Amino acid sequence: MSGEKFEGRTYVVTGCSKGIGYHVALGLMRRGATVHGVARTEQVLRSLKERSGGKFTYTVCDLTTDECVDRVVTDVKELHGGAYGLINNAGAGALGDLLELGPEIFERLTKLLYLTPVKLTLRLVPWMIERGEGVVVNVITLGIATHIRGLEAYLAPKHALHRFSKDLRDYLSPRGVRVITVYPPVTRTSFFEGHGLREFYRKMSSNPLTRWGITFPERVAEAIIEAIEAGKEVVTVPRLARALLIGK
Ligand SMILES: NC(=O)c1ccc[n+]([C@@H]2O[C@H](COP(=O)([O-])OP(=O)(O)OC[C@H]3O[C@@H](n4cnc5c(N)ncnc54)[C@H](OP(=O)(O)O)[C@@H]3O)[C@@H](O)[C@H]2O)c1
């Protein structure tokens, strides 16, 4: 069964130079898929390509720009003819007083976390629809289950991506294309090097009540790949955390 979803299939993975996306890329290639990766850190992408045995291609660009979206789509079409899967994973965060963060952060995060995933989806999904198969994975956050003061600029686009994904699912399911939504909890990655986030992570990891819920990027990546394989639509880590999304 796994061969069907991975062997000879091409997946676009955004944000694959680190963290969750890096492990998703490795996991997909281990199962026989080809990955087209996107991030800004060329060194890591080059090294992934060198070690991939021909299973990794990439575009180096900043996903907050339309030129980047255009280049990714062009490269994927030229190198692979299209994509069986799109994993919208690239992300960054910011924590701070909503009234003081400034509009640039809201704009950058809205582009990176919402508009770019929407644009990539709209550009890459026609190829999937034509074949009646494919998968779009949107990495959201378990943070949408609650309100975290100071994380508004990050959570608003994640809420938008969550809503868009649910609506997209209604359009794509009848056409054979699966939409998977992923809600990671706090995960130990460089995400917390983002604006104002170090202190948030320090508090989470030193508090016995919250520390237990912190996970690793390998675990989230494995849950994503298992969901693709099993045809599951909603991914939480741990699975029980799904209860937090009731009514969302
Ligand atoms: N870590 C958590 O606690 C957590 C919890 C819930 C959800 N998430 C979500 O999980 C996803 C992955 O995050 P992570 O924890 O794995 O973070 P990470 O380790 O910091 O990785 C983020 C990835 O996104 C890429 N990226 C960031 N900004 C970019 C840009 N402007 N253009 C292109 N690529 C960009 C980075 O690559 P370059 O820097 O090389 O460009 C990197 O590969 C994000 O959507 C995040 O919101 C994370």
CATH fold type = Rossmann fold
Strand content: 5-15%
Main beta sheet: 7 strands, parallel
Q: Cα distance, first to last residue?
A: 31 Å
Strand-helix topology:
Elements: H1 2-6, E1 10-14, H2 19-30, E2 34-39, H3 42-51, E3 56-60, H4 66-80, E4 85-88, H5 103-131, E5 134-139, H6 152-172, E6 177-183, H7 197-206, H8 208-211, H9 217-230, E7 234-236
Parallel strand pairs: 1-2, 1-4, 2-3, 4-5, 5-6, 6-7
The chain binds NADP nicotinamide-adenine-dinucleotide phosphate (NAP).
Describe the protein.
- It is a single chain.
- This protein is α/β, with parallel strands linked by helices and 248 residues long.
- It has a single domain, classed as Rossmann fold.
- Helix content is 48%, strand content 15%.
- It has a seven-stranded parallel β-sheet with strand order 3-2-1-4-5-6-7, sandwiched between helices.
- Helix 5 runs parallel beside helix 6.
- The longest helix is centred in the middle third of the chain and has 29 residues.
- The structure holds NADP nicotinamide-adenine-dinucleotide phosphate.
- The site of NADP nicotinamide-adenine-dinucleotide phosphate has 27 residues, from helix 2.
